[in-house]
Design a protein that fits this description.
Oligomer: single chain
Strand order of the largest sheet: 7-8-9-10
Distance between the termini: 33 Å
Largest sheet: 4 strands, antiparallel
Radius of gyration: 19 Å
Order of helices and strands: EEEEEEEEEEEEE
Strand content: over 45%
Length: 151
Amino acid sequence: KQDLIVSDSEDRSIRVWDVSKRVGVQTFRREGDRFWILAAHRSQSLLAAGHDSGMFVFKLERERPASTHGAANKLYYVRGRELFCHDYSRTLNGSTGVDVPIASLRRVGNQAQTDGIGSSPRFLTYNQHNPTEGNVLVCSEVDGGCYELIT
C-alpha cells in the first residue's frame, strides 16, 4: 500500500500525492465544476468527490493488469514495469504455461519520478496482422497519452 494524500481545489482539480516521495502522482479535472468534498473508502481503491452539479465515485488504481491475447496460445500482460508473455503451450515442472519476461517498460513524463497511481499502462494491443514479429503496443494515459511499441 502507498501513503497517499488526496486534495481538492477551486481550480477544478483533485490531486493525488505520494507522501513518501513528495510528488503528485495523478490529477483529475472537471472543467465545468469545482470540487467541494472528498471521501475515501477504507479498504478499496474508491474515492467519492462532490462538485457543483453532483458527485461521482471513481477508482484510483486498476484492479486488473493491462493484457491482450497474442498468437498461438499466448497472453501478453504487464506486471510492475515489465511486459510478460504467458505461453500456454509450454510446461515447466508439470504446470501448464510459462511466464516469459519480454521487456522492461520505460518511465515517461512526470510519472518517471514514481510508480504511483496512474502510471501503469491502460491497455495493450497485439498486432494480429503480423504474428511472426509479435509486436505489442503498450498505451498509457500519462501526460495526456503516450505509447511504446515492443517488437
